[in-house]
What we know:
The chain is an all-alpha fold. Helix content is 76%, strand content 0%.
Amino acid sequence: xxxxxxxxxxxxxxxxxxxxxxxxxxxxxxxxxxxEKGLQSLPTRFSxxxxxxxxxxxxxxxxxxxxxxxxGGSRPSSDLFHKMAVxxxxxxxxxxxxxxxxxxxPVSTTIMLRSIADVARSQGELIHVPEAKLACIQVFALGxxxxxxxxxxxxxxxxxxxxxxxxxxxxxxxxxxGLAFHGAPPVIRFIxxxxxxxxxxxxxxxxAQAVPVAGAAGAAFLNLIFMDHYQDVARGHFIVRRxxxxxxxxxxxxxxxxx
Length: 259
């Protein structure tokens, strides 16, 4: 089934959101940030802290999602409300720097997940279905592209393909047994794969906070950019998924690649 002109334009818009602007580029455009200087300012234990914090944040967000995101029906997403909420968490957590990350990140991630789910609903997703909930978590991997990920082989559909087996197994496990992280290898594998890419964006955010010029902007302002980034990624992702429900995944991917 060939996509009509309106659908193609929607897909073009989604591709722009998903492929063209990275989180690092958004921060650089907002405050002229020299990332390398920020990365050099971070402590040597930085990678371990980020890895643990991102896994914990995503696990808590998924637990919350599975238990509470159970309302269907599409409506416009409340983007501004969620931006104000994450602005407040940034203002509170930013004062503690890296030490505050294990506390602030799970809260910010959960708020972002609620916003992502709101965007998903606006595109007709049935949020009570486990696969749809996991697709919301998947956004954190789709939005975790580094500046080295410019090749087509690391684009949107490549990341989705890499996660497809993990998301299918995790959704099946949750549907059959519910959510229990202890002894739930499919869910843990999925969380680990998403965390490895989500950590890229967290690293860029903390690098920004470590640069003096970002201090004037503040952690709260960076959290606004953080939320805006993932709202854009979510909108692109769920537009694609909506079009796949109307046409076929193969037709949508072929058209996406050709744009």
